[in-house]
Each structure stands twice: as C-alpha cells, then as structure tokens.
Specification:
By secondary structure, the chain is mainly alpha-helical. Helices cover about 70% and strands about 5% of the residues. A two-stranded antiparallel ribbon has the order 1-2. β1 (about 235-240) and β2 (about 240-245) form a beta hairpin. The chain is globular.
Length: about 280
C-alpha cells in the first residue's frame, strides 16, 4: 500500500479546512441562537467563528491578502453555516456529536495550516507554533468575546488550545525533518483524538497551585524578616478622618484563608456547572 502523495494530502486538507469552516460557522450560529440574536448576529458570529483565526493570522503575518477574503469559497461556507444554524436548532445528540467531531478535525487542520504558512514565510519554529494555535482557536475566542463570555480556551474541558499547540508542534517538528506530507495527517489525527478524549473524560488543566506548608511557613518567615509582616496583616481604614493600622492574628488569618478556599471551591463548582449547561445548550 503506497502512502498518499502530497497533492492528495493537500486536497484532503482543503476539504477538511472548508468543512471545518462550515462546522464552526454553525457553532457560531448556535451561539447566536442561545444569545437570542437576529439574523445579522447569526451571520457575524458565523463568520467570526469560522474564519476569525485565519483572518487574525494573515493580518499578523502580512503576507498578502487575507485568505478568507481572497478565496470567496470560505465566505460562502461561513454564510451557509449561518443559514443552516438559523433554520436548524441542532438540539439532537447525533447532530451535536457530528459538529463536535468536525470541530475536532478542523482544530488540527487549522493548526497545521497556520504553522505551515508561517514556516513557508521563513519564520522560526516558535512563531509557527503560536500562529498555528492562533489559527485554530482564534475564531472561537473572538466569538466568545463578542458575546461577553469568558473564552472557552481559558477553562473549557475540550482543551482546544492545548490540542492546537500539540498539533502545531507536531507540524513544526515533521516539517523540519522534511516530512511535509506526513505532518498534516499527524497533526489532524493527534489534535482530533486529544480534543475528543479531553471532552469525553472531562480533562482540565490545573487552575492554581498551592504551595506546600513548609514553603508557606518559609514565605511568612521571610516576609516577617523583611518587615512586611505577613503574620500580622495590616489593614488601613478611616475612622472620623483618622487612619489607623489594625493587626490581625495569624490564627484569624488562617481561618479566613480556609473560608476563602471553601468559597473558591464553591465558585469553581458553580462555574463548572454553568459551562456544562452552556455545552448542553449548544
């Protein structure tokens, strides 16, 4: 069995690229439906979701016209996606999973295209990795910002940004090794697989790192030694125009820290439930 030639791979990548534009345009339309926007909102969010990452990439690279404008087929696919989302609510489970699969495939495809285009311009590996990731997640980020939502790449369970960075890195490594055909296939397969597994198993990146108790004690000792006084937290308050300094007992501070930690856990759980609700709505 002979491996596919470069022309066949390029055609396959273009098909996945256009299909990804359509799928993400539909996702943008679904977001517009959730926000109860009119047809103009559907069109704008569909274009931003399907083509935003490539537009930002081409604008930053400044290497000719933006691909989404130079090739009318991209805009046509985005408009078709807006129309489809406006007519069809996509509430069934098979429909949502189809969009999820297409979104995962396009994630690796766009990361690969962005990294390749950057390398072809003679830039180094680091800009290529960053441009690949930006191409993959830029559209969804702009869409979320337009809806005044926290972008899903900052806490979503699909790990889309991580998948895009992995796909871009694979593209760069195989490109530098001279396997320009294999990098497209590998990037798409790895990114799609990683993204789908992250969604299925609810993988998340760590939100914060708690220092071990000896490190916290050393930090308090150093702060006290330098005169900052972490063990006696100073709060300024105004009473009748006069400013006073109030010292808090370390035990009281530990109690407040524990209470703050519990509040953070509750808040994270509420945010997680909201994200899960939004994902089911889509």
């Amino acid at each position: 069995m002979t491996p596919p030639d470069a022309q066949t791979v390029d055609q396959a990548v273009r098909v996945i690229d256009l299909t990804g534009v359509l799928a993400n345009a539909v996702l943008g339309g679904i977001a517009a439906r959730t926000a109860r926007l009119d047809i103009v909102g559907f069109i704008v969010l569909a274009i931003l979701s399907g083509l935003g990452g490539g537009m930002i990439r081409d604008a930053l690279l400044q290497a000719g016209p933006v691909a989404a404008v130079a090739d009318p087929l991209y805009l046509v696919m985005a408009l078709i996606g807006a129309g489809v989302a406006f007519v069809i609510p996509f509430r069934s489970r098979p429909a949502r999973w189809s969009l999820t699969l297409l979104d995962a495939l396009s994630l690796g495809c766009w990361a690969n295209v962005g990294a390749q285009k950057t390398l072809e311009l003679g830039l180094s590996w680091l800009p290529a990795v960053l441009m690949g990731a930006l191409t993959a997640v830029g559209g969804s980020t702009v869409r979320d910002v337009m809806l005044q939502k926290t972008p899903s790449i900052f806490g979503g369970r699909t790990l889309s940004a991580t998948s895009a960075l992995v796909a871009s890195s694979i593209t760069v490594v195989l490109w530098l090794l001279g396997h320009s055909t294999a990098d497209s296939i590998a990037a798409i397969v790895v990114a799609a697989t990683f993204s789908l597994l992250a969604r299925h198993f609810d993988w998340e990146l760590p939100h914060e790192v708690h220092a071990p108790r000896p490190a916290r004690q050393a930090s308090r000792w150093l702060s006290h030694w330098w005169g900052v006084g972490t063990d006696a937290v100073h709060h300024l308050h105004h009473d009748g125009g006069a400013t006073a300094v109030v010292s808090r007992d370390p035990d009281d501070r530990n109690d407040r820290d524990d209470a703050a930690t519990r509040e953070e856990v509750v808040q994270r759980e509420q945010d997680r439930n909201h994200r899960e609700h939004d994902r089911h709505d889509q």
